[in-house]
């Protein structure tokens, strides 16, 4: 690509432990001011990837570039402190014997006046200037996390690596700290690579999500695209509960109780999973044994009987036992609607909300 190189680029990183590729050919780029989330289940290799970029672990093959300059392959290796990288980890504790200001100043170079100016700038940005002379134990968990952010940002790192930085905080506080952190990182124009196993965190923070499984990135893109066009059943299931209807392809179509689904390019006889999220199952009332009329967009309605309905605050989760095969499908609906078990209702699902994937055993 012509023009400015990415702030961070990794190419084909492989890391083996005990004969297993724990990181198996990971490539990605992060631009200045952009947050990329490495998202995946526990053990998929996220932290190992981050540790390699930080320089505290070493890849078996692959390269790391910062602003287009090679900082590490299997021959050259810039030490961690020479990479312009800041770190923020959940258990990256503050120094208990130093004041808040001394903690933030810890990695800074320059004159005393320059250091003081930078510390004051960052502490006021995270709203903690009045705590400058206190010690960490006098601050709440959320405040300590903000100090940790200020400390990591103080030397103006070109790249910030964050590994589950908010997981020690309780829910409400976590949302606030995430938003504040994001605002500060954007102002500083830092390129951020954030590791998390929580889809909500990734959706809230990321400009781009790299979904990782078994050491590989299986899908990469804006949160909206990753959520709405998953590459496979597991990618869909990572973000929410899913419904799955099984079918077999005949003539690029598969027949279900909801009518036909297109399966272009899928060979005859292939078993497929038709996957959709519970919020996309639409409910209609029973009109003397009939449901709404079929439409090209929503297909044929199918009847189910309410098995269970649970109130969950903002929404209700309703489980239906379907007449056609006795399977259970789930719908989330606004919680004003809480039908009684045994109520027959009709269900439809819009075609553009469904994904047809060849079944993997
Ligand atoms: N030093 C090591 N020696 C041997 N195996 C390791 C080492 N470090 C990591 N692993 C293994 O590599 C795999 C990936 O670990 P990693 O910590 O990168 O996963 P993760 O996706 O970050 O998971 P988590 O969210 O639980 O930290 C795991 O199976 C882990 O046991």
TrEMBL record:
Superkingdom of the organism of origin: Bacteria
Gene3D superfamilies: P-loop containing nucleotide triphosphate hydrolases
Domain ABC transporter: 8-239
Any one Gene Ontology molecular-function term assigned to this protein's record: ATP hydrolysis activity
GO cellular component terms attached to this protein's record: ATP-binding cassette (ABC) transporter complex
Keyword Cell membrane set for record: yes
Protein name stated in the entry: Fe(3+) ions import ATP-binding protein FbpC
Lineage, uppermost ranks: Bacteria, Pseudomonadati, Pseudomonadota, Alphaproteobacteria, Rhodobacterales
SUPFAM superfamilies: MOP-like, P-loop containing nucleoside triphosphate hydrolases
UniProt xrefs under CDD domains: ABC_Carb_Solutes_like
Taxonomic source organism: Pseudoruegeria aquimaris
């Amino acid at each position: 690509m012509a023009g400015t190189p990415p702030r961070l680029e990794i190419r084909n990183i492989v890391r083996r432990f005990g004969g297993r590729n724990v990181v198996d050919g990971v490539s990605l780029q992060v631009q200045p001011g952009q947050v990329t989330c490495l998202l995946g289940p526990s053990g998929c290799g996220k932290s190992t990837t981050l540790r390699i970029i930080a320089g505290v672990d070493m890849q078996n093959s692959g390269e790391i570039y910062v602003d287009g300059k090679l900082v590490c392959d299997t021959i050259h290796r810039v030490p961690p402190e020479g990479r312009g990288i800041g770190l923020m980890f959940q258990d990256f504790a503050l120094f208990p014997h130093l004041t808040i200001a001394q903690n933030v100043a810890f990695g800074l170079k320059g004159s005393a006046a320059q250091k003081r100016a930078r510390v004051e700038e960052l502490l006021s940005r995270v709203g903690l200037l009045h705590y400058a002379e206190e010690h960490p134990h006098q601050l709440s968990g959320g405040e300590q996390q903000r100090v940790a952010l200020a400390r990591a940002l103080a030397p103006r790192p070109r790249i910030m690596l964050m590994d589950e930085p908010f997981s020690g905080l309780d829910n409400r506080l976590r949302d606030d700290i995430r938003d504040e952190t994001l605002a500060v990182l954007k102002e500083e124009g830092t390129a951020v690579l954030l590791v998390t196993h929580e889809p909500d965190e990734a959706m809230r923070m990321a400009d781009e999500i790299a979904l990782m499984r078994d050491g590989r990135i299986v899908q990469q893109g804006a949160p909206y695209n990753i959520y709405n066009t998953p590459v496979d059943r597991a990618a869909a299931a990572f973000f929410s509960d899913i419904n799955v209807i099984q079918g077999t392809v005949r003539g690029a179509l598969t027949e279900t109780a909801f009518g036909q689904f297109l399966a272009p390019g899928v060979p005859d006889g292939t078993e497929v999973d038709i996957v959709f999220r519970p919020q996309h199952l639409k409910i209609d009332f029973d009109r003397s044994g009939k449901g709404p009329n079929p439409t090209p967009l929503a297909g044929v309605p199918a009847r189910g009987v309410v098995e269970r309905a649970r109130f969950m605050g903002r929404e209700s989760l309703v489980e239906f036992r379907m007449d056609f095969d006795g399977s259970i499908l789930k719908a989330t609906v606004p919680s004003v609607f809480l039908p009684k078990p045994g109520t027959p209702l009709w269900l439809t699902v819009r075609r553009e909300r469904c994904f047809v994937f060849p079944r993997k055993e």
